Amino acid sequence: MAGSDSLERLHDATRDALVAARLAFAAPRAKLDLALSELDGVAPRAGAARTVPEVVKRHLVPRAIAHREAGALHACLLKAADLLTWSPAFYPEDGYPDIPRFRDGYAFGMSVGDPRWAKDAVTTSERIGLSYTVQAPHTLYPDHAHAAVEIYYVIAGKALWKRGGEPWVERYPGEVILHETGMRHAMATADEALVACALWISHTNAPIVVVRA
Ligand SMILES: [Fe+2]
Questions:
Q1: What average pLDDT is seen over the chain?
Q2: Domains and CATH numbers, the chain
Q3: What is the value of pTM for the model shown?
Q4: Tens-digit pLDDT profile for residues 88-117
Q5: CB neighbours (10 Å) of residue 109?
Q6: Rounded to the nearest whole angstrom, what is the distance from the C-alpha of residue 2 to the centroid of ligand 1?
Q7: How much distance in Å is there from the Cα of 164 to the middle of ligand 1?
């Protein structure tokens, strides 16, 4: 089935990107090795074509990406986008003014989900979660935290990232960012949309909470 081929290519490109990132200075190799071994344990399956949200249609578009593996992954993601299960961020309209704006400017597309919460996931695992995220320009993903150990891989877009009490850092395609259990983190885009891959390698059914100072 053509859909399965697209998803398999997406998974292969994700794997290639992580393998390349593993060689970078200061890469979290043990965590990347765990992610790679868990990725090898799931075979992506394609379901019916899914609805792609407007924010994804607008910002997951062909673009020049100088980093080789990130560019290859982006190309595969474009072809497989309608096979992912897209959702807005989970946060309710809780009265904070940044949440509605964030919900308008962000979506994540799940490829592998935990069956305990991701009821519509086609490919399931209780050991790894695999999603792709799209964050519009000039959008803040506010400080949040979860028990899951998380590895992000930047696919496209220069953006600002913050971990715990560290300062904001500009990150580029091909970079890996590790969030340990409970570590608060945030992402802010400027003029470029951010496209990233997010892997959860523990606590795959953990809730995400916004952290307010
Ligand atoms: Fe996170």
A1: 94
A2: 2-210 (2.60.120.10)
A3: 0.96
A4: 887 665 667 788 889 899 999 999 999 998
A5: 23
A6: 31
A7: 12
